[in-house]
Every structure is written in C-alpha cells, then in structure tokens.
Amino acid sequence: MASANPFVDDLRSKPEVIIDPPQDENIIDSEPVNDPTQPATKPNLVVSSSVRELLECPVCLNAMYPPIHQCSNGHTLCSGCKPRVHNRCPTCRHELGNIRCLALEKVAASLELPCKHQSYGCVGIFPYYSKLKHELQCSYRPYSCPYAGSECTVVGDIPFLVAHLKDDHKVDMHSGSTFNHRYVKSNPHEVENATWMLTVFSCYGQYFCLHFEAFQLGMAPVYIAFLRFMGDDNEAKNYSYSLEVGGNGRKLIWQGVPRSIRDSHRKVRDSFDGLIIQRNMALFFSGGDRKELKLRVTGRIWKEQ
Ligand SMILES: [Zn+2]
Ligand SMILES: [Zn+2]
Ligand SMILES: [Zn+2]
Ligand SMILES: [Zn+2]
C-alpha cells in the first residue's frame, strides 16, 4: 500500500534533510528556497522595509526619487538636498561629484509600497515612482485645519478637526441647516485688521464652516461671508447654500456652492466666492450712527437633487 504521507516521499528524495539537526530549521527557512507552501510575502516585506530605509535621504529623511546621487564612497543623497550640501557628502565629508546611483533607482522602481495615508484608511499599494503622485491626490490625505485666524498647522481627518476646532479654537458649533447669525464690531473702520469669525454647522451628517471677515477689495473695504465644506470637492458639490443680509428695507442675497476646505480660506476669499457686502452698505444695514457694525446674516444649507 502506497504511503499517503507526502512527507515520506519528500524525505526519501532529499536524504540530507533527515540528517540535519533540528536547530538548523531556522536557517533552512530563511534560505531563498522555492517552497510553494510558504507565502512569499513575508520575506519580501522584510526586504522592502530595509530597502525603504536605503531610499531615505540621510539629510531631509524624505524618500528619494531619481536622480539619486551618491558620493565616491557610495553614500546616497536626494537631488533636493544635493545643492544644499556644497558638494560635500553629508555622511563622510568627501567630495560629492556628480555620480548617480542607478542601481538604487532601479531597485526603487521595482518596489510597491502602501500609500502613506494608510492610517487614514487608504488601502492603495503603488509602484514607488507613482506613489508620490497618488499621495498628493489621495482622497484619504488629511485636511488642514480650516481655522483662518492663525497659522494653525494641525492636520487630520474631519472628525479630528471638528473636535480640534471646538476644543482648541473654541469655535461656535451649531447643528441644523438654517442659521441666523449676528456679527457685531465696535470699530468697523479697522478693516486692515481683518476681523473674521468662524462658525461650524453640522447637518446632513456633514460639517460646514461659515466664514465672515473684513478685507480690502482694491481700495474698498468690504465684508465677505462664505461657506466651506469639511470634505472633498466632489462631495461639496452636492450641497448649496444661501446667505441673506439686510436692513432698512434692503436685502442682499447670495446663493452658492460650499467650497471644499481643500481650497484654502484665502483662495476662496480672493476669488470672491461668497456674499460680499460693501462697508458703506454694511453700515447702512447696521442702522444707528455708523460707529458700530451690526449685521444679521441668515442662511440655509440644502442638499441638491
Ligand atoms: Zn534629501
Ligand atoms: Zn560619503
Ligand atoms: Zn492613498
Ligand atoms: Zn487649528
């Protein structure tokens, strides 16, 4: 009766395995033998992480892209850092010259790496040289803080930024798709000191930022109010909003589409994509003695289709 155990045949054909002491098993495992029962991914992952270290520029610590430079001793350097090291290898201080490291460039071309926004949910795996391009466009890439009043450098996903706006910037949070907001400023003539306000609205399971600020449009001091969508542009297009401001029997109405917070606050403002109120008109709406700005802005957000 033939043996049903495939091991027996295997051992017979490779008698040297029998005499190998068991403690050598690890060494045999790590040899690049073609064993179809072993998944090929494990050793490859080990290799790619050490190659990834090789591809890290020792100066700026970014991943290197062609042309990758090297000194005569073989230390590598990215093309962005090369002009900044005054022709001296930052590792051994030897003259750098103009040697390209083609071997490393070719190794890089053979790599496939996960998107760096993996921790935000991207599952994409990309060839080394197209990874950078993807990451710039990746829909999982974190958003910058939409708060416009300071040089805030915080980035994150939307739930994180909403909590950040609330906790760190003390931004007013409102729920609902309609709003009625009052802006009061005692000295409306100080337009240069760009007074601004941010309010966050949550509706339709999304978050919207209402910006209000004073700025100079050419020679004329104006106020602008506009809405930004906390999410990507393709989703922002599913919403519309209207803003109304008035007084003394006059009214200005703006209807627009919220802009994604991927577009900077400044970009939106400078394209005048919002309700623009001339200061004279704003003071007229405010009533009183023109010494105080008192605007009531009402608005509505709705979902298209
Ligand atoms: Zn560098
Ligand atoms: Zn060197
Ligand atoms: Zn990605
Ligand atoms: Zn911030």
Features:
305 residues; alpha+beta; Herpes Virus-1; Apoptosis, Tumor Necrosis Factor Receptor Associated Protein 2, Chain A; 2 domains; 6-stranded mixed sheet; 4-stranded antiparallel sheet; 10 helices; elongated; disordered N terminus; binds zinc ion; endosome; Znf_SIAH; zinc ion binding
Detailed description of the structure:
The protein has 305 residues and is of the alpha+beta class. It folds into 2 domains: 41-137, Herpes Virus-1, CATH 3.30.40.10; 143-303, Apoptosis, Tumor Necrosis Factor Receptor Associated Protein 2, Chain A. The protein is built from 10 helices and 17 strands. It has helices at 6-13, 15-19, 25-30, 41-54, 102-109, 128-137, 158-167, 233-236, 265-270, 279-286; strands at residues 69-70, 76-77, 99-100, 112-114, 125-127, 143-144, 155-156, 172-175, 178-185, 196-203, 206-217, 220-229, 239-247, 250-256, 259-260, 275-278, 293-303. Strands 8, 10, 11, 12, 15 and 16 form a 6-stranded mixed β-sheet that branches. A 4-stranded antiparallel β-sheet has the order 9-17-13-14. A 3-stranded antiparallel β-sheet has the order 2-1-3, with no helix packed on it. The chain starts with 5 loop residues before the first helix and ends with a strand. Mean pLDDT is 82; it is low at 1-43.
